Amino acid sequence: MKSFTKIALLAAAAFALAPAAYANTYEDRLAELRAKFKASDKNQDGKLTLQEAKNGGMTRIAYGFSSLDTDQDGFLTLAQLEAQLAARLK
Q1: CB atoms < 10 A from the CB of 37, how many?
Q2: Are residues 58 and 71 in contact, defined by beta-carbon separation less than 8 angstroms?
Q3: Is the pTM of this model over 0.85?
Q4: How far apart (Å, rounded) are the C-alpha atoms in residues 51 and 58?
Q5: Of 83, 70, 75, 66, nearest in space to 26 by CA
Q6: Widest Cα–Cα separation across the chain
Q7: Of residues 1 and 40, which shows the higher confidence score?
Q8: pLDDT bracket for residue 82 (50, 70, 90)
Q9: What is the DSSP string of 41-72?
Q10: How far apart are CA 19 and CA 37, in angstroms?
Q11: How many CB atoms are located within 10 Å of the residue 48 CB?
Q12: pLDDT by residue (tens digit) across 19-36?
């Protein structure tokens, strides 16, 4: 009976801690976005083209590029993407 109690307590602790271990906060996602943007912006002009997004592995950004490009100028800035992220997660 003692081993069952220990197992039950360990299982309860694991379930309680799991959300904290996998928490993906706004700040985490923002840091990830900034890092991916910087790595994908190969010419370092502060603008992300559709091709840069594709080549950089930013598949979700590439897929929704036209809707994310709110001013329809053919590129995305980090500020545009940060605004979209904030609107979704805050």
Answers
A1: 22
A2: no
A3: no
A4: 10
A5: 83
A6: 68
A7: 40
A8: very high
A9: -TT-SSEE-HHHHHHTT-HHHHHTHHHH-TT-
A10: 27
A11: 27
A12: 554 457 999 999 999 999
Structure tokens at 86: 């904030």
Rg of the chain, C-alpha, whole Å = 20
Buried residues in 20-36 as b, exposed as e (16+ CB within 10 A)? eeeeeeeeeeeeebeeb
The structure tokens listed for 80 are: 């545009």
Q: What are 71's two structure tokens? A: 């001013």
Alpha-carbon span 81 to 61, nearest angstrom: 9
Angle between helices 26-40 and 78-89 (to 10 degrees): 160
- Mapped onto helix, strand or coil, the DSSP state of residue 11 is helix
CA distance 52 to 47: 9
